[in-house]
Amino acid sequence: MDPITDNEFRKFQTFIFDAAGISLAPAKKALVSGRLAKRLRACQLDSYGDYFTLLSDDAHRAERQIAIDLLTTNETYFFREPKHFEFLGAIASASRGGGFRVWSAACSSGEEPYSIAMVLADRLAGKPFEVIGTDISTRMLQAAQRAHYPDIRARQMPSDYRKRFCLRGTGPQEGTLLVERGLRQRVRFAQANLVAPLPDLGRFDVAFLRNVMIYFDAATKREVVQRVASLLRPDGYLCIGHSESLHDLGIDLIPVAPSIFRKPGRAGH
Q1: Pairing of strands 254-257, 260-262
Q2: Where are the domains of the chain?
Q3: Would you call 35 a catalytic residue per the annotation?
Q4: Which one of the listed residues 101, 123, 135, 153 is annotated catalytic?
Q5: How many other C-beta atoms lie within 10 A of the C-beta of residue 95?
Q6: Where do runs of H (alpha helix) occur along the chain?
Q7: SS3 sequence of 77-116
């Protein structure tokens, strides 16, 4: 197999930007090469240019999705950036009535939406709620639905949540955990591309859009945040990653805490 050339890498930069709005820096050349190498072998191709040509053919849409999955997957874990979950617990506890809904807008392999569901199950004390997890990667969504994880992904999970909401693996499954069935049934997954029109997801009290905007340029970031915010209820909240910013995007969201924003209510305040 030939090493990836600069010209081939530029083609894949364009490919993943057009498909998912992700801007790959030149430093990601090795990552692209490494993640796609096994697909070249599986397709019995000798060069990345040949693989790009294959992806450009409408007859190979399934392979195109595999390539998108490989280039957009990011490792995550339960209760990442815990202050967001503390905030979620506080507003859920203060909410009136039922039907509390939260959206994990780039859910990867599912640890974030299940973390959200654990907090809501704990704080809402039997009141109805729904968690929706969306991702562009079908492979990650399949992993999320399995809800079976290495123990190391749960290193920040509160111990009481682990006892209540997870089953410990034994025998061949030792070193893993499975999210229990009752909680799994409170989380729904759907494929969605944040840089394209969204499926009908309904309205949300809170949306998590974390650690994905770092891959977008300013124009794409503005488009994505506006799209996600449009599905928030008035006075709903948006949580972004602690390393991310909405500075200079000109979006009508009110900062309420570091990396947490509120959508103005019906009266505009």
Answers
A1: antiparallel
A2: 6-72, 83-262
A3: yes
A4: 135
A5: 16
A6: 6-20, 29-42, 48-55, 61-72, 83-94, 111-123, 138-146, 159-165, 181-184, 218-229
A7: CCCCCCHHHHHHHHHHHHCCCCCEEEEECCCCCCHHHHHH
Could you check whether 6-72 and 83-262 share the same CATH topology? no
CB 134 within 8 A of CB 191: yes
Residues 11 and 66: their CA atoms lie apart, in Å, by: 17
In angstroms, how far is the first alpha carbon of the chain from the final one? 59
Fold of 83-262: Rossmann fold (3.40.50)
- Catalytic choice (35, 39, 80, 164): 35
Which residues are CB-contacts of 117 (< 8 A; sequence separation ≥ 6)? 129, 131, 183, 186, 187
Structurally, at CATH architecture level, domain 6-72 sits in Orthogonal Bundle (1.10)
The model's pLDDT over 22-53, given as tens digits with 9 standing for 90+, comes to 888 898 999 899 999 999 999 999 999 999 99
Q: How far apart are CA 36 and CA 42, in angstroms?
A: 10
What pLDDT, in 10s, does the model give residues 118-177?
A: 999 999 988 899 999 999 999 899 999 999 999 999 999 999 999 999 999 999 999 999
